[in-house]
Amino acid sequence: ALVFFGATGDLAYKKIFPALQSMAGRGRLDFPVVGVARSGWTREQFIDHARASVSENGGYVEASFAILAEHLRYVDGDYNDAATFAALRTELAGARRPVAYLAIPPGPFPVVVGRWCA
Questions:
Q1: Bridge partners of 6?
Q2: pLDDT at res. 118
Q3: 13 CB contacts (<8 Å, ≥6 apart)?
Q4: For the residues 56-77, what does the mean pLDDT come to?
Q5: Residues with Cβ within 8 Å of residue 110, at least 6 apart in sequence
Q6: Is the pLDDT of residue 41 over 90?
Q7: What is the rounded average pLDDT of the residues 81-86?
Q8: Residue 59 near residue 19, CB atoms below 8 Å
Q9: Mean pLDDT estimate for the chain
Q10: I need a surface site. Which of 51, 70, 88, 98 has the fewest CB within 10 A?
Q11: Long-range contacts: 46-54, Cβ < 8 Å, 24+?
């Protein structure tokens, strides 16, 4: 699984979603992708955000995006809240080697890494 913190931010919008759609189009996206952010969104809103991203920044490809959307998950919460990481662990149940990507400012790195590794 790939977990990316800052999933509703600018880096994700401009770079990560288009890259993930490209991976999906090449048959290389065969794992869950879990976005974590504090936006108050549902999974459906998160998928709509990803669709807008690829439309603006990489070219929406219906078949590729369908694969991406199928793999997208979303955990909404504050990085300082242990409940966010409990929800993330639930979402990752069964994932053997989850990888984290920090698409966030450096300030929250210690908190996120500390809770991720706990």
A1: none
A2: 86
A3: 49, 52, 53, 56, 57
A4: 97
A5: none
A6: yes
A7: 97
A8: no
A9: 97
A10: 70
A11: 46/7, 46/8, 46/72, 46/74, 47/72, 49/8, 49/13, 50/17, 50/20, 52/13, 53/12, 53/13, 53/14, 53/17, 53/18, 54/17, 54/18, 54/21
Distance from C-alpha of 33 to C-alpha of 72, rounded to nearest angstrom:
5
* Token pair 């976005």: residue: 35
The one-character DSSP state at 15 is I
Q: Is 2 helix (H, G, I), strand (E, B) or coil?
A: strand
At 2-21, the pLDDT tens digits run 999 999 999 999 999 999 99
Measure the CA–CA gap between 40 and 104, rounded to whole angstroms.
Answer: 17
Q: Where are the beta strands (DSSP E) in 1-118?
A: 2-5, 33-37, 72-76, 99-102
Summarize pLDDT for 84-109 with one digit per residue, the tens. 999 999 999 999 999 999 999 999 99
